[in-house]
Amino acid sequence: MADEVKALWGQYLGNLQRHPLRTKAITAGVLAGSADVIAQKLAGAKNLQLRRSVLLMLYGFCYSGPFGHYFHQFMNKLFPPSQDSKTIVSKVIVEQLTSGPWNNFLFITYLGMVVEGRPWSSVKGQLKTHFPSVQLNAWRFWPLVGLINYKYLPIQLRVLFHNLAAVCW
């Protein structure tokens, strides 16, 4: 079993090397859809809402994976590659004040309008009501993910780690 896992990991890393954007997009899509299935099961759903899971998979594939790919490239240009604490904390702060709120805003909007089919007026009300608490809770979880990401992971694995953390989130 360990040999098979090692071989699959090697194939994944090879795909990541040859086709980084495509691999990150597919990975983000699979993990977003899987996270939704897990969430539905944990919530006690007797029948899975497959349409919902597919739409969340699409979100991961079309947005989360590509956004993460380009965002981490941008961060490497904005900050020199360094493992010193000041640089790592600066990256986490920039991430938490820019992409964090943006991603939460976009996800709430996508969930409401695309997945649930609600009109903008309804989603706008939900954003006003729920966005502040969502963002405050995000700031309790995601800075630690960012610290681990920037301190211990090479750039090519940051989107994967971020998406694995999102499964828990």
Automatic annotation (TrEMBL):
Main location: membrane
UniProt keyword Transmembrane helix, yes or no: yes
InterPro entries according to UniProt: Mpv17_PMP22
Subcellular location: Membrane
Membrane association type: Multi-pass membrane protein
One GO cellular component term: membrane
Family: Belongs to the peroxisomal membrane protein PXMP2/4 family.
Name of the featured protein: Peroxisomal membrane protein PMP22
Species name: Ceratodon purpureus
